[in-house]
Structure formats: C-alpha cells, structure tokens
Amino acid sequence: MALVDTMKREWSLGLIPQVVALTPWAFHSFSTKVFLKGVAMSKQEEWRDLPDYEGRYQVSDTGRVRSPERRDTLGKLRKQKILKTRKDRFGYMKVWLHGPNKNGTRGRTVSVHRLVAEAFMGPSDLFVDHLNGLKDDNRPENLEYVTNKENIRRYRAKNKQTGASFKPHCTNRPWQCLVNYNGKVYALGCYETKEECYKVKKDFLNKKYKEESCGIIL
Q1: Where in the sequence is the domain holding 21, given as residue range(s)?
Q2: What confidence tens digit (pLDDT) does each residue in 35-54 have?
C-alpha cells in the first residue's frame, strides 16, 4: 500500500504523466521501477556529481548512476554510460564504482541511496532512511538522515504490518500467522491462539532484523 499511496500522491501533484495514468486498482500492478520511470518521464532528470568522484560519476534524483562523457588520464574520450545496479539480499540497490577516488580508495560497491543522499543532501555519518519503506525508491524526497536508534525504531514500526487471520474451518488451529515483510507476505503456520501467532511474528521479525543489522539490537 505504501507504493500505491506514493503513486496517488505523485499523480495528484501532476508528477506522473498521462502515459502511465491508470485506474486506482491498477496501481497495485506497478513496481517501483515502473513508477520511477514514469516520474523521470514527467520532469527533467537532475544529475549531480558524487562527492570525491567529481567529473567521473554522477547520480540522478531518480536513483540512476552514470559515468558522464569525459576524457581519461590518457586523453581518450569516454562516452557517457549508465551504470548497472543490482539488488542485494536485503532489497537495497547497489552499484560498483571503479577507483581510485580523491581519497585513494579503490573500486568498491556502494549503496545507491547513500550516493543520492550525499549528492543531494550533503555527506553525513548518519544512517539513510527510506521514508515510504521501499528500499529501491531512492529519490531524494524519499530519503532522510537519521540516527542509528531512530533508524531501528522506524524499521520496527514499518514491519509491524502483520497479524493473525482467523480461519474457522481449521478447528484445532484456527489462527494463521501472516507476516508482511519487505513487500512479501509470509505464512508462518496455524496456531491455537492469537497470542501464539504474535509470538511467532515477533521471533520472525527479530531474526530478520538480526540478519540485516549484524545482530545489534537496541
């Protein structure tokens, strides 16, 4: 629903062009990638140099990364190239930057949301939070610098969209545990009581959180 609400809001502001106009129910079939493509079509894409990579790499306000046309150290003309991005196992977009940068750092894989935040909001040691919960929606207006503690609090709040579904035809275990995590719904079995469902839900989310935060729980 977060994506649907975001698209409706952008449509009301006139940011989504007629070419992607759909009836409300059809918004559910849109991926974040299609949505961002529509936004890019509706306005001029803004590109900014990456800190420490000025003239070599740029990132746009839709989360795309490119190497602009330039001449290398040997004087050879390098054509503009859009870099390929990929999702990591946690759903964040990653991109490979060839080094070295101004600090002498060699090639490295970096998070696209961190590049967008640093280019459009300035460098920071804080964490970057996706306001609508969509990890591949890396527009500047969807990103915000937050502390580690606040990032954890928001993470837990966004992943509480879970519940217990009552199924009367299951006489022995009528409560089915359903967990909405990162846009996917997990069915974690059926239980005798609603309380058991919420305990299973809590254990599941704690396990997922430990995997993403290297076990640091505050």
Answers
A1: 1-43
A2: 555 554 556 899 999 988 88
Which of these, 42, 94, 41, lies nearest to 63 by C-alpha position?
A: 94
Task: Please tell me the total count of domains within the chain.
Answer: 3
Low-confidence ranges of the chain (pLDDT < 50): 1, 8, 11-31, 40, 161-162, 215-218
CA dist 158 and 170 (Å) reads 30
Cβ 99 vs Cβ 109: under 8 Å: no
* Pair of tokens at residue 206: 């704690």
55: left (phi over 0), alpha (psi -120 to 50) or beta: left
* Contact of 51 with 118, CB cutoff 8 Å: yes
- Do 9 and 90 lie in one domain? The reply is no
Residue 101 dihedral angles phi and psi, to the nearest 5°: -95, -165
Q: Which of 117, 111, 170, 163 is nearest to 142 (CA)?
A: 117
DSSP string, 69-111: SEE-TTS-EE--EEPPEEE-TTS-EEEEE-S--TT---SEEEE
Instruction: Please indicate, yes or no, whether residues 48 and 144 belong to a single structural domain of this protein.
Output: yes
Q: Based on the fold, state whether residues 111 and 191 are members of the same structural domain.
A: no
Last residue of a domain, one of 133, 155, 177: 155
Q: For residue range 104-137, what is the model confidence (pLDDT) as tens digits?
A: 677 889 999 999 999 999 999 999 999 888 888 9
Q: For strand 70-71 and strand 77-78, is the pairing parallel, antiparallel, or unpaired?
A: antiparallel
Q: Are residues 18 and 63 in the same domain?
A: no
Note whether residue 190 is domain-resident: yes
